[in-house]
Design brief:
- This protein is mainly α and 106 residues long.
- The chain is 80% helix and 0% strand.
- It has one domain (2-105).
- It is built from 5 helices and no strands.
- Helix 1 (2-25) runs antiparallel to helix 2 (29-54) and helix 2 (29-54) packs antiparallel against helix 3.
């Protein structure tokens, strides 16, 4: 059983590596934030898979990491909104890309 959990954790570590590459080289701020979200989610999953192997105390760390990832997303949305209110749909430039607006306009 622990061999399968370890193999699954290694696969998730590969996903975490890809997310860190996206954070480092992402073309835009939103892409980098999504990479950071994937890194947080992958980190939580790895910790939860390794909890039976390394001890159940690791679950506390996983829950704190999940909380930090959620707070980072909220902080990002507040930072990129026009007035800092946290509603990205207020600013049309952030809500939808230019190409989508051109298609919708006809």
């Amino acid at each position: 059983m622990t061999v399968w959990l370890t193999l699954a954790a290694v696969a998730l570590l590969a996903s975490l590596g890809a997310a860190l590459v996206r954070v480092w080289c992402g073309p835009g701020r939103a892409d980098r934030m999504m990479g950071a979200q994937l890194a947080g989610t992958s980190g939580v999953a790895v910790l939860m898979l390794l909890a039976p192997v390394n001890g159940w105390d690791v679950l506390d760390v996983a829950l704190i990491l999940a909380l930090f990832a959620a707070l980072a997303a909220v902080g990002f949305v507040k930072a990129v909104s026009a007035d800092g209110g946290g509603d990205p749909e207020e600013d049309e430039d952030l809500a939808e890309p230019q190409s989508a607006r051109n298609i919708a306009d006809g």
